[in-house]
Amino acid sequence: MFIRVKRRDGRRYAYLVASEWRPDVGSPRQKVIKYLGPADAVEADDVPLAARGQPAVEKWLLTYGTLTSPESSAALAATTETLKQVLLRGDRAASARVAITAIDEFGTWSFMERIAKPLLYEIGEEWHAGRLTVADEHIVTHGISDIVRQVTAAADTKKTRAQRVRVLLANPEGEQHSLGLALLECRLLDAGHEVIAIMGGLPRRDLVRRAREFGPDIIILSTTIDAHNDAALAAASDLRQAVPGARVVLGGQGWASPPADLRLPKGVALAKNATSAFAERLAAEVVKTRSAPSM
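Given the sequence above, the corresponding structure tokens read:
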């Protein structure tokens, strides 16, 4: 087995392929085993366990996917530390240079998922531990937000309407941490989808009204602390009724350890790890369902 990449609309998509011998024609035939998703977002867990040990598959993941070699991990860690230091100094020009270099070297997805997001978690943990001040945390968060906005503004939509989905990203009322949604917004825009991001915890009634107006195919509600999960559940229930055709998903760090007796509203899903790759796979499922013939 090996991984093949196909390019469509300027994007690269990965497929797990097996080569099977065809005795009737006396030659091998390649068969697609599984669609893995956007090539630069394929994770080891996306590949069936039986295929992960295949030399060609492992080599591809090390070279192009998210499975990193020790050398790549060291380079990512060094870049993350450099970015952290220039952000803490409040040097936005240097921060932009480090980010641009990292995006050129590792790609937009890797910068967002392997550098920006882990750095935000690290800064938050150091703040809670008292090693950084609240001012430090705000400086870094705003610095990364500026970088994300620049990348988002540069996103180029090449998909046709049939290939695009509408995604609503929002925080429930009371939740003020929205940078995780900004990372998702950047990735989805870069993939050519339509996105409206409502950050900072809009009141539920207003959020529902905006959702009706936008008519999304997917709604993702994000919380960073579990104190806001009840508000997310209430909003999800209202949104599901207001936009019955939309897929409603709860995600974010606030759901890292959900209660065992959690009861989700009907038609609402929970994604403990609502990463950019997850959002793109969900969008691909919507497009596939949309194009399937009706019974």
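The chain has a mean pLDDT of 80. Try to locate this feature in the token string yourself.
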